[in-house]
Design goal:
The complex is a heterodimer of chains A (545) and B (315). By secondary structure, chain A is of the alpha/beta class. Helices cover 37% and strands 24% of the residues of chain A. Chain A has two domains: 32-43 and 75-249, P-loop containing nucleotide triphosphate hydrolases (Rossmann fold, 3-Layer(aba) Sandwich), CATH 3.40.50; 266-280 and 289-511, Rossmann fold (3-Layer(aba) Sandwich). Chain A has helices at 42-50, 75-81, 93-96, 103-115, 119-132, 151-163, 181-198, 209-215, 243-252, 319-326, 349-358, 376-381, 393-406, 423-435, 453-470, 481-487, 505-510, 515-523, 527-544, and strands at 4-13, 16-26, 31-35, 57-65, 68-69, 86-89, 169-173, 201-206, 218-223, 226-230, 268-280, 292-304, 308-312, 334-339, 342-343, 359-362, 441-445, 473-478, 490-495, 498-504. Chain A has a six-stranded mixed beta sheet with strand order 6-7-8-3-9-10, with helices on both faces. In chain A, strands 16-17-18-13-19-20 form a six-stranded mixed beta sheet, sandwiched between helices. Chain A has a four-stranded antiparallel beta sheet with strand order 2-1-4-5, with helices on one face. In chain A, helix 6 packs parallel to helix 7. Chain A is globular and about 70 Å long. Chain B has 315 residues and is an all-alpha fold. Chain B has a domain at 93-267: MetI-like (MetI-like fold). Chain B contains 14 helices and no strands. Chain B has helices at 2-29, 34-39, 45-55, 61-74, 87-122, 127-141, 144-158, 174-208, 211-218, 223-234, 236-252, 255-260, 266-275, 279-307. In chain B, helix 8 (174-208) packs antiparallel against helix 11 (236-252). Classes of the chains: A alpha/beta (545), B mainly alpha (315). Chain A binds chain B through residues 50, 52, 55, 75-76, 79-84, 87-88, 90, 92, 95-101, 109-110, 113-114, 145, 147, 158, 161-162, 282-283, 286, and chain B through 10, 124, 210-212, 214-222, 225, 229-230, 233-234, 307-310, 313-315.
Chain lengths: 545, 315
């Protein structure tokens, strides 16, 4: 008998249909990957099982867990199931923990609640669980608060809370999406060990096919509130017959970039020499100078015209700080940055305006970088102000239309507000805004990290085409090696403010020399590699049957 | 935590010092003769000269400032021109009414507002919530002197449970004095509680939507347990801010209520001193009120840090 059996589940929230006739079953000890793009209803399926849906939610259909119909259970009985029999891990470790309670209290809470243990006994058990998830007392004491922990450590605490009572079913909703590649690999390994030890079943929700492929026994693919395909076994390869599933798979394996030969010979457009960017930390004492943290420590590199340079590293390694310094948005504490032969720190007035016109930026979260009360036309046309009187209203309108067309949008879209666009369209708008001044260099800071795989592939294709057509130079910041491989000619690997390795992208990522680069490459779950590994591993089994 | 409080304490002392300079400058150094202000435009030159001498106005300003600050520190605030009593004594007598009244009113405010706001938030959009929101709307809109008169009519005149006004002093024992403060405290507390309950409700609704509350529910806590154990403390920061502002207001902003109930409080003292242009009293009382606002802000800061561990390390 299946441990969890969902039959014909439909969900509507305030009248809007969210899920339609969803049927899923998870056997004891099985890991089911639930894959789909954002908004496809994955998380709502999980919250329906937990009965933690938002207000105004109405469900139909049956959810049977261990033979019990969860929908018919009174709320106090449901409380006894949550945490005890079904544990849940959430996406955002930053916000999933209560900032005002110590991690020890938060992990111990489940023991006090479900097993009626004393506080001391619960704390002892909490310590044991935290140790099991890789947070020994020597590293993290029970009295620490969430803000004192790194993202990976916080996610371990969230996992500790979910597995504390060894529930037969775990639900993990995008458990590694907010983490760096190296941390992601460690957390997935831990999850795999824990479910094996406890013999638990896992419902793994993700939009990342490489994650699901590394973890799941079986895969179900969701789209617009419906399950479009459900595999019988053999991980992802057992579930790719539906055209949508195939398209999703294609979109997630990005083809490596064909490096343009022109790059090395042309003159550098950007020269960064011994760049230092330091921040003052809070004073420890009134009488001593405030300590400093070097966010960028003696970084030098050049970018040739028409080239695409990647900047990779984990969050906090100084990538974005370097970008802000190049854009002359912040003062630097050492070194120099020259754009087209001019020192950017000495630019004033008209020279500065000319620099701003020639260097543009695309941010990770386009929604956050748009004024929600401005229409798309105004947002895209705003940089035209840098051109001063050169640009009259008529030609401004024409250039907005051109820029929108260039990124594959319609000139009529100029009259829409940002919220009327999808995530991918918004990123196209951000690119149009960067293109409108006809810049030479575009700095792109994690431009595709917030996008779904299929949209990501489209945006990367657009960026490649635009570069070819307009002769643009890119400085491309990303933590995602597959993306960097697809869009850059050369790559710099940064760690703790320093460049540890630099060179042509295929060489650095194909045969990394520095141990840190090797670690990064090993951790990034390269889809093709994992797919072939899976297939190879499953072949002898098939033959044996 | 201790070093946080210490650092805040240093900031508090610096702010106080700056405040004394400002108060002194505004009242004594800026153009306009304080003696002239106190005596009016038709004063005789010899009376004016005598008062100038008595007030020490012939000495240079820095010397007068130091003298005044030394007096503040030692509790010697000078002698009131109109009351002919030491200002320190006047202030002490009035504080014996105003301080207990403010504490009493704030305690009532908190006891009413926090459970009410939490109740409304927990039962969002229910009849309870709508009822609480309507009642607090009326509480904010109703002027407190009108409320004070209604309370006096009902409890003092019709039911004869409580005195309609006046203050017997603490020498007669705590109960008669407290009895005299009940109606004024209620009249002050109801509008303040209406504001605070609304702040509590909206702050709690925000935190109830936070991810960690959902995490708590996923651990098996009931909705009520998640609210009490996880959401409530997180919702307290804005509530503390408003409480700090309310206490500062209650200490001296209660002139109308003091007048309705014939209470000899600090508010009336300031009002009378300003009317009679008794600058000696005005200067000291203004400084006292400034100091109380600064001290209350300090206490609110310490309370923030006690509630939120993330704030303890910052300066």
């Amino acid at each position: 008998m299946a441990l969890l059996d969902i039959q014909g589940l439909s969900l509507s929230i305030n009248g809007a249909l969210i899920l339609q006739d969803v049927s899923l079953a998870i056997e004891p000890g099985e890991t089911l990957g639930l894959v789909g793009e954002s908004g496809s209803g994955k998380s709502m399926t999980a919250l329906s099982v937990m009965r933690l849906l938002p207000r105004g939610a109405q469900t139909n259909g049956s959810i049977r867990f261990d033979g019990q119909d969860l929908a018919a259970l009174p709320e106090p009985d449901m409380c006894r199931i949550r945490g005890r029999r079904v544990g849940m891990i959430f996406q955002e470790p930053m916000t999933a923990l209560n900032p005002l309670k110590t991690v020890g209290d938060q992990v111990a809470e489940g023991f006090v609640l479900h097993l009626r243990l004393t506080r001391a006994e619960a704390a002892r058990r909490a310590q044991a669980v935290l140790e099991r998830v890789g947070l020994p007392a020597t590293e993290i004491s029970l009295g620490r608060y969430p803000h004192e922990l790194s993202g990976g450590q916080r996610q371990r605490v969230v996992i500790a809370m979910a597995v504390a009572l060894a529930p037969p079913l775990l639900i993990a909703d995008e458990p590694t999406t907010a983490l760096d590649v190296t941390t992601q690999a460690q957390i997935l390994k831990l999850l795999r060990e824990l479910i094996r030890e406890n013999g638990s079943s896992l419902l793994l929700i993700t939009h990342d096919l490489s994650v699901v492929n590394a973890m799941a026994d079986r895969v179900a693919i969701m789209r617009a509130g419906e399950i479009v395909e459900q595999g019988r076994g053999g991980g992802l390869s057992g579930a790719i017959t539906h055209p949508y599933a195939k398209a999703l798979l294609n979109a997630s394996s990005l083809p490596p970039r064909v490096t343009s030969a022109a790059a090395p010979t042309s003159r550098p457009i950007l020269e960064v020499k011994n760049l230092v960017r330091a921040y003052a930390l809070p004073r420890r004492s009134l009488f001593r100078a405030a300590p400093r943290r070097l966010a960028v420590d003696n970084v030098s590199f050049t970018v040739a015209k028409g080239e695409s340079l990647g900047l990779v590293g984990e969050s906090g390694c100084g990538k974005s700080t370097t970008a802000r310094a190049i854009l002359a948005l912040e003062a630097v504490q050492g070194g120099s940055i020259a754009f087209a032969g001019q020192d950017t720190s000495k630019l004033r007035g008209a020279e500065m305006a000319a620099f701003r016109r020639r260097v543009q930026m695309v941010f990770q979260d386009p929604y956050g970088s748009f004024d929600p009360r401005h229409k798309a036309g105004r947002i895209v046309g705003e940089p035209l102000r840098l051109l001063g009187r050169e640009c009259d209203p008529q030609s401004a309108r024409r250039r907005v239309d051109e820029a929108l067309t260039e990124v594959g949008l319609d000139p009529a879209d100029a009259d829409k507000y940002p919220h009327e666009f999808s995530g991918g369209q918004r990123q196209r708008l951000a690119i149009a805004r960067a293109l409108i001044t006809r810049p030479d260099l575009i700095v792109l800071d994690e431009p595709v990290s917030a996008l779904d795989v299929s949209v990501r592939a489209q945006v990367l294709k657009l960026l490649t085409e635009l570069q070819k057509r307009l002769g643009l130079t890119y400085l491309f910041i990303s933590h995602d090696l597959a993306v960097v491989r697809a869009i850059t000619d050369r790559v710099l690997v940064m760690r703790a403010g320093k460049v540890v390795e630099a060179g042509p992208t295929p060489k650095v990522l194909g045969a990394p020399e520095h141990p840190y680069t090797r670690e990064l490459v090993a951790a990034s779950l390269h889809l093709d590699a994992i797919l072939s590994e899976r297939t190879a591993a499953s072949l002898p089994d098939a033959a044996g049957c | 935590m201790l070093s946080f409080a210490l650092r805040r304490m240093i900031a508090l002392l610096v702010t106080l010092a700056v405040a004394t300079v400002l108060v002194f400058t505004v009242l004594e150094v800026l153009p306009g003769d304080p003696a002239q202000v106190m005596l009016g435009t038709e004063a005789r030159p010899d009376t004016l000269a005598a008062l100038r001498d008595k007030l020490g106005l012939n000495q240079p300003a820095p010397e007068r400032y130091l003298h005044w600050v030394a007096g503040l520190v030692t509790g010697d605030l000078g002698v009131s021109y109109t009351y002919a009593t030491p200002v320190a004594e006047l202030v002490r007598d009035r504080l014996a009414v105003s301080l207990p009244l403010a504490v009493f009113a704030l305690a009532l405010t908190t006891l009413i507002a926090i459970p009410l706001g939490a109740w409304a938030a927990a039962r969002r959009n229910s009849a309870v919530d709508v009822g609480v929101m309507a009642a607090t709307q009326i509480g904010i809109a109703a002027p407190n002197f009108w409320l004070a008169m209604l309370l006096a009519l009902l409890f003092a005149i019709t039911l004869r449970w409580l005195p309609a006004g006046g203050f017997p002093g603490w020498s007669a024992g705590p109960w008669p004095a407290l009895r005299a403060l009940i109606l004024p405290a209620v009249a002050l507390a109801l509008p303040q509680a209406s504001i605070l309950a609304r702040v509590m409700r909206s702050s709690l609704l925000d935190t109830l939507g936070d991810d960690y509350v959902r995490t708590a529910r996923a651990k098996g806590l009931s909705a009520g347990q998640a609210l009490r154990r996880h959401a409530l403390r997180n919702a307290m920061i804005p509530v503390l801010t408003i409480m700090g502002l309310q206490f500062s207001f209650l200490l001296a902003g209660t002139i109308i209520i003091e007048n309705v109930f014939y209470l000899p409080g600090l508010g009336r003292l300031v009002f009378q001193a300003i009317n009679q242009r008794d600058l000696i009293v005005v200067k000291s009382v203004v400084m006292l009120l400034v100091a109380s606002v600064i001290v209350v802000n300090f206490l609110v800061d310490v309370a923030y840090a006690a509630v939120d561990p993330r704030l303890r390390r910052r300066g």
